[in-house]
Design brief:
This protein has 648 residues and is α+β, with helices and mostly antiparallel strands. It is built from 22 helices and 22 strands. A hairpin with a 4-residue loop joins strand 9 (229-237) and strand 10. Helix 9 (274-283) runs parallel beside helix 10 (323-339). It is elongated, with a radius of gyration of 34 Å.
Length: 648
């Protein structure tokens, strides 16, 4: 075995570079963090060929003294900590003192810097830590140029992607730092073309720092996304200090297929944390479709002693002293905020302004004047006129075209009488059906009508279209409701409430029903017997791949035990091998049960059933989305309708 030797400093730095410098984006991140720590108010970043050829970062910060430049590029030399104890209360972005040394070992590095009231200096290196500073003219601040990255490690340079791909990674690293510091002016250019020019966004005293951060988000990701953000904030008082959560989460209709739009900042540092990302996903459970990821811009401010930032070479991950309360704080804050927000798709985001009201008054006066100028025959509504010919037509196609009346007679308009249409034979036949097969009598969308000789509930201003959708008039305009999605949400929350309150009421079968399953499904069902028992399904082995259903939830007595169990078995088998959380599996089972029991597309509803469904909506927490994340309704405002009809 060869003798043990001390590695040369260059090799040590190149090994460290393998952990710190992964690609040009890593260089930009490290240099940006140093620039922010220097107190700079403007930072300009320029890259060429994705950063592989050149990375230049210019700041107007405090600068580096001329006699300290050679020390700045040595390993573990820093001005930000002085003892091991300070590692556990780091208040700066950089602190290890290895970034410049690692970068210098794999590139051609030039540093020019000057402090206020001192002479400037320049230091040049080419893969070696031995260099001397020389006088140079430069403004206050620091300019760092990194050229020919990985020129002396061609194996690593071979793993770099195309210039456009590397520029994308660099832009992402740039955005994370720029998001955390909205008061700093940042610019980013690639091959001479400006990609981002982010002017400082100071916090207006009357609107607070959230407005400044929203402006920075809009500058980076566009006004459409910024306009769909929901502000959140909470505080947790502890003995060690206050933990403040603030920022924005996106409306559920704004999602992505990846988690790259989830920005979590801890004391101004962009991090990745699986626990907090899981809490974010739990908060959006039932509001977004499976496979979609929410968008967030969240900041956590806490005493530095409660977080350890020294657990990852690139400082992308941290370790919290106690992550449980943080998980609960994030989950509780978002859920409370969602419950107090109107998340219906298309819902107006703000009340009309004074200018809008004034415009509405002017429009009303103009319309009144126009009506006064019209002739009597042109402006009267012939409410007592006979039913139009198309309403009397009973064939399967439109009636033959009839010419307009001659002799100068104007067209007359007829008002739609909703109550009269609802009582017509056609409307009655369309809406009178047998009561739904629903979950329990109290959840059924059935109520008595005139056929049963009892009172009818007050008529609802709702119209069923194609036996699928309900159209409801609202103060803002019109709302179109998906009957299946809304009923599914109502049933899901009823089931969940009953499960949380205790064991569900069960109904024992006189003769246990045998159910044949596939081997994987049978194994998954028997492994989840306790879980199924908590929702009222008593399943026991019978032999082979057959199981017996001994009891069934009383709420689902109108459904077939065999078919219901087969559907649940498919869900359980799909989760097999993943060690799913019992709560997640139970939630999926409740989703499946509520979906099977809800009214379906194509099911006609009676007036009473429509009324029961609409009455159940206000008492349902997340009635704006079904358990699978689809919206239950769409809002069309009067202004939108007027715009579609070109009235405004």
């Amino acid at each position: 075995m060869p003798a043990i030797k001390q590695l040369p400093d260059l090799v040590v730095n190149q090994i460290a570079a393998g952990e710190v410098v992964e690609r040009p984006a890593s260089v930009v991140k490290e240099l940006l963090e140093n620039a922010v720590d220097s107190g700079a108010t403007r930072i300009d970043v320029a890259i060429e060929q994705g950063g592989a050829q050149l990375v230049r970062v210019v700041d107007n910060g405090s600068g580096i003294a001329a006699d300290e430049l050679p020390l700045a590029v040595t390993n573990h030399a820093t001005s930000k900590i002085a003892s091991a104890e300070e590692l556990f209360r780091v208040g700066t972005l950089g602190f290890r003192g290895e970034a410049l040394a690692s970068i210098a070992s794999v590139s051609r590095l030039v540093i020019r810097s000057r402090q206020e009231g001192a002479e400037g200096a320049e230091l040049s290196m080419a893969g070696s830590a031995e260099a001397a500073a020389s006088p140079a003219g430069c403004p206050v601040g620091t300019t760092i140029e990194v050229r020919d990255l990985f020129f002396n490690t061609p194996v690593r340079r071979k793993f770099l992607r195309t210039a456009q791909t590397e520029a994308g990674h660099t832009s992402e690293a740039f955005a994370r730092v720029a998001l955390a510091h909205p008061a700093v002016h940042f610019t980013l250019s690639h091959n001479g073309r400006v990609l981002h020019d982010l002017p400082p966004c100071p916090a207006p005293p009357a609107q607070g720092e959230d407005r400044a951060w929203r402006d920075r988000i809009a500058a980076l990701f566009g006004e459409d996304l910024a306009g769909a953000l929901i502000a959140v904030e909470s505080r947790d008082e502890r003995e060690e200090g206050v933990i403040r959560l603030s920022g924005f989460v996106a409306d559920p209709k704004q999602t992505r297929t990846h988690t790259r739009m989830q920005y979590l900042l801890v004391n101004g540092r962009a991090i990745r944390d699986r626990s907090l990302q899981h809490a974010l996903g739990e908060a959006y459970r039932g509001l977004i479709l499976t496979g979609r990821k929410p968008i967030c811009f969240l900041r956590l401010e806490m005493p530095p002693a409660l977080v350890d930032v020294n657990v990852h070479p690139q400082k992308l991950e941290v370790r919290f002293a106690d992550s449980g309360p943080l998980y609960s704080q994030l989950l509780g804050t978002l859920r409370s905020r969602f419950l107090s927000s109107d998340l219906r798709v298309g819902a107006p985001e703000q009340a009309p302004s004074e200018d809008d009201e004034a415009l509405g008054d002017s429009t009303t006066q103009l319309v009144d004047w126009a009506k006064g100028e019209l002739g009597e025959r042109q402006r009267r509504f012939d409410e007592g006129a006979a039913t139009p010919s198309y309403a009397r037509h009973t064939g399967g196609s439109a009636p033959a075209f009839r010419p307009f009346p001659s002799g100068g007679e104007s067209l007359s308009m007829h008002r739609f009488d909703g109550s009269r249409a609802a009582s017509s034979p056609t409307a009655g036949n369309a809406l009178s059906v047998a009561p739904r097969a629903a979950v329990g009598d109290d959840a059924a969308l059935s109520c008595t009508d005139e056929d049963h000789g009892t009172e009818v509930a007050a008529p609802t201003r709702a119209l069923q279209l194609h036996n699928r959708y309900l159209v409801v008039e609202t103060d803002a305009g019109m709302e179109v409701i998906d009957q299946h999605a809304l009923h599914e949400r109502v049933l899901y929350e009823q089931l969940r409430a009953r499960v949380l309150a205790g064991p569900l009421e069960t109904q024992k079968l006189l003769v246990p029903e045998p159910v044949d399953l596939s081997p994987a499904e049978a194994a998954a069902v028997l492994d989840a017997r306790d879980l199924l028992l908590s929702i009222g399904l008593d399943v026991r082995p019978f032999g082979g791949d057959t199981v017996l259903v001994h009891s069934f939830p009383a709420m689902l007595r109108r459904l077939t035990p065999g078919e219901t169990l087969r559907g649940l078995a498919g869900e359980l088998a799909a989760e097999a091998g993943k060690a799913p959380d019992a709560r997640d599996v139970l939630d999926e089972l409740l989703h499946s049960m509520s979906c099977k029991a809800a009214v379906k597309y194509g099911d006609p509803l009676t007036d009473g059933e429509i009324a029961a469904l609409l009455d159940a909506r206000p008492g349902t927490e997340n009635h704006h989305h079904c358990p699978h994340g689809r919206p239950t309704s769409l809002i069309f405002t009067r202004e939108e309708l007027d715009r579609r009809f070109q009235r405004i």
